[in-house]
Amino acid sequence: MAPMNRFWIFGLAFLLLASPLVQVARCQVESDVVSETAEEGSDVGIVGDDVQDFGDGSFPSAPGIDTITVFPKNIAKLVTAGEETELLVGVKNDGESSLNIIAVRASVHLPFDHNYLVQNLTVQGFNNASVPASAQATFPYLFAVSKFLQAGTFDLVGTIVYEIDEHPYQNTFYNGTIEVVEAGGFLSMESVFLVTLGVALLVLLGLWIHGQIQHLSKKTKRAPKVEIGTRATDASIDEWLQGTAYTQNLSSKLKKKK
């Protein structure tokens, strides 16, 4: 019985010790299956921190490759903090070889100091995405700025990384401004201030124009006529001409009429 008991104890201990290894192996197999399914079922994926580092943007751009950016249904380029924003990257291949799209990435900078990096946005990878020669294609890119980012104007720099004949290249598809707004608000505080200031200036201008019109209307009113009696005028003239030849002639004429 003693050897049999030792065997059962050893077997039980082996099972207890080996069970984590079995679980780890099973997890590895399941993760491999999931990754293969994701690669086969989707050509677009979010690239994490453990993927290839594309460096600091030192790749050159290939000749004959042009890019364009469109913010669908978002002409004002409004980006709500903490929420996803979509843009479309158009690639036109006028080269002689087909290109393979590797990833799209972007970053946010201060508009007055482009060297100051505000945030690195998500790197979006593409699998089995290619653009043949003399063809064009469009690729979506979803990004979200930090929900703690203050509302205002920022610069967005987006690049698309691709390969031609196993050589890496990249193009800057967007290098311009975006307007970050707070969640639930259509206008930033700066925009509200500018609108309020504009309305106040218009009101002051209207009051000034109204005052000028009233001032001009008062000037154009005619002053009332003042009738001056002839007696007072004659008396003043007589007093001024008294003792002159004119008064003497006038008195002589009056005597003749009598």
TrEMBL record:
Top-level division of the source organism's lineage: Eukaryota
Protein name listed in UniProt: Uncharacterized protein
